[in-house]
Amino acid sequence: KLSKVKYYHNNKRLGAEVTFKGDKKVVKRWDEEGAFLYDTEFSDQIKDTEIDSIYNVTEQLPSFPGCKEVKDDPTTPNDEHMDCSNQKLFKYISYQTIYPLTAIELSLQGRVFVQFVVDKKGMIKDVNVIRGVHQALDNEAVRVIMLMPKWNPGMQKGKAVNCRFTLPFKFELK
Predict the structure, then answer these.
(1) How does pLDDT run across 98-137, given as a tens digit for each residue?
(2) CA dist 14 to 11, 28, 70, Å?
(3) What Cα–Cα distance (Å) separates residue 76 from each residue in 9, 56, 84, 117, 165?
(4) Is the CA virtual torsion 32, 43, 2, 134 positive or negative?
(5) What pTM does this model have?
(6) Are strands 54-55 and 159-171 parallel, antiparallel or unpaired?
(7) Burial of 170 (0-12, 13-18, 19+ CB in 10 A)
(8) Is 87 within 8 Å of 105 (Cβ atoms)?
(9) Is the pLDDT of residue 41 over 80?
């Protein structure tokens, strides 16, 4: 059975396409201008040699891209880099998030908590709503996560590792 899910940027251009083929999932990504970025294939079947731990706590957290100008290297942990990364992340979220019309009509508000894995290559995978409000708000939070650019991966003992990350989305009508 083949099925596809598409996620769009605010400018209505295709941002991501997830194709499910049996036990495989293929994710293709495009930037806001429509330029192809990459594709990645995941499988639900894990070979013994592919088992990688997913860390909940790391020496250095994964960071949102765009702060290479801070200090020398984003792989060097420092508060200034993380502050910059968090600012870029929240700017991205506020720019990308579109309050769903259904949620406006129903006066829905609240926090949606989304958990995902930033893998050791910086790719976003295994996106799950761990506490939702309503399907319309939950889906919007997942859409925004799926469109995220490649992150700087979490680091443990100087090596990039898979890291679980939880992000709250606050939906508030004003």
Answers:
(1) 999 999 999 999 999 999 999 999 999 989 999 999 999 9
(2) 9, 10, 31
(3) 31, 19, 13, 21, 19
(4) negative
(5) 0.72
(6) parallel
(7) exposed
(8) no
(9) no
Tokens in use for 173?
């009508």
The CA-based diameter of the chain, rounded to the nearest angstrom, is 51
Both tokens assigned to 150: 């490649």
Provide the residue type at 151 as one letter: W
The pair of structure tokens assigned to 139 is 């889906």
Dihedral-angle region of residue 107 (phi above 0 means left; psi in -120 to 50 means alpha; beta otherwise): left
CA distances from 32 to 8, 12, 29, 151 (A): 9, 9, 10, 17
- Alpha-carbon distance 13 to 33, whole Å? 7
What is the phi-psi region of residue 160: left when phi exceeds 0, alpha when psi lies from -120 to 50, beta otherwise?
Answer: beta
Alpha carbons 7 and 28: distance in angstroms, whole number: 10
